[in-house]
Amino acid sequence: MVDLATTAGRRGPYSNTARRKAEIVQAAERAFAVTGYHGGSLRQIARDLDLSFTSLRHHFPSKEALLIAVLEEADNREQASFEKDLVRGGLIEAAVALAERNLAKPESLRLLAVLAAEASSTSHPAHAWFVDRYDRVRAFFENGIRYDIDQGRLPADTDVAEAAYALVALWDGLQLQWLLDPHFELVPALRKAFRIQLGQTR
């Protein structure tokens, strides 16, 4: 028989720890989005949460560990929805739907844009993570392109790898323009650019 008191006791601290870690990640995401990785201060993040510096370091022993947690949270947040949209309407419509959702959270996009630029330096603690991220994003696009080919949405002779590189570049470039100028019409520009790149001109 399960000891409910013992089980509850285990769940309580675990739940509190998970909630606290989530709060720290959210606060760090806001801080890094505004000041970049190097400008973000762990002590300030702790103060923003009314948390001791020691407690923050208990959950994230280093600034690098917190940075990776922030990046992974931002990067994984929409993956499930994107995959569902891909199956339902194809790569372009999935990308457009994600772009529309992202309009409501410029902080996350700004975070990735700022840190990606900083991480171009090989000495940056997130350099390897961003190299791996772009490999994963291109592979994700390649899978989406292959799925559209199988569904008859794209020509069978589409150069999958070349198209994936181009789509990632288009996505990043258009998002950056929107971050610089919120009046820029990101969604229609993204849809048109993807259609042109993939040969869907209608």
Could you explain how this protein is built, in words?
The structure is a single chain. The protein is mainly alpha-helical. Helices cover about 80% and strands about 0% of the residues. It has ten helices and no strands. Helix 1 crosses helix 4 (about 65-75), helix 5 (about 80-90) packs antiparallel against helix 6 (about 90-100) and helix 9 (about 160-180) packs antiparallel against helix 10.
Helix-strand pattern: HHHHHHHHHH
Molecular shape: elongated
The largest sheet is: none
Q: Residue ranges: pLDDT <50 for 5 or more in a row? A: 1-10
Number of strands: 0
Helix and strand layout, with pairings?
Layout: H1 4-39, H2 42-48, H3 53-59, H4 63-76, H5 79-89, H6 91-102, H7 106-118, H8 127-150, H9 160-180, H10 186-197
